[in-house]
Amino acid sequence: MPKDFLGNYRTKYIHSVGTVGKVKFVSNGKHPFTGVWEGAQHGLIRCSSAVEPVDYIAPGFGLKFLRDGIDSADLVALYSVNGTPGDWNFFEKDFSNHIPAAVGAALHAVGTKFYTETAWIQSVGLSDFSKFGEDGKKIEAPVFPFKLRFHPNKETNGLIPNDRQDDKMAYIGQLESMIPADTVLYDVYGLDAPPSLGGVEILMGTLQLEGKLTRSKFGDEQLFFRHQLSSDDMAIKPEWESSYAKFSPLGGSTSAGKCPYKEMLKSLYGA
Description:
Layout: E1 18-27, E2 40-49, E3 59-67, E4 70-78, E5 95-96, H1 105-115, H2 127-131, E6 147-152, H3 170-178, E7 184-191, E8 201-214, H4 217-221, H5 230-236, E9 245-248, E10 252-255, H6 260-269
Antiparallel strand pairs: 1-2, 1-8, 2-3, 3-4, 5-6, 6-7, 7-8, 9-10
């Protein structure tokens, strides 16, 4: 990430504090997806809360896999930008690259800012992961999932308590101290097409920690994760476009093809 004219890196206004660990993706070899999804050894995960916890955490992670001679493959995954009210265990919920619409005026304002870049703010693209392997070699016929689901592996079950701690940032210390080195963090599932087109969810493999999670100034201030636009995926799979949630600053999120004004009135008046 380049510095600004004052020599500073971009400020992280969300997900500003987190922990970082080395990870590998262990493919089970029983899915059609290419590139990094065929197996990768050199990854980084950064676990954080989207906002400073007060009444709940809003857990999510950035994932980066390094590739020889080309840019890294990056994605971000969450449960919801509205967080997990009542749940304080970072590994209580599944994460995905597709998330539900945000609820509340403040988060709608954030969505409107994101909208200045793309209307598809509730998802990130996955096609770049499939185009090159970890060795940097181009895949001639890349295959990528429509959606990913990261399900906490059984090894993380019960490691972190689900009750609120006195220290609102306690979840950071829990990730560092309660997650053993080399833990299998997630079972990774891929949906090969939108459900409306008959998509099937396939177990792809596991995301495994190598060593432990560690907080650092570098991780908080200089480590960034690219958000691939979902429109990149649609350019390759135009038949998928109607299955992506599309944001409207006037009416929140709608499915493509629906009138945002109609959806806004429906949400306001129930008609």
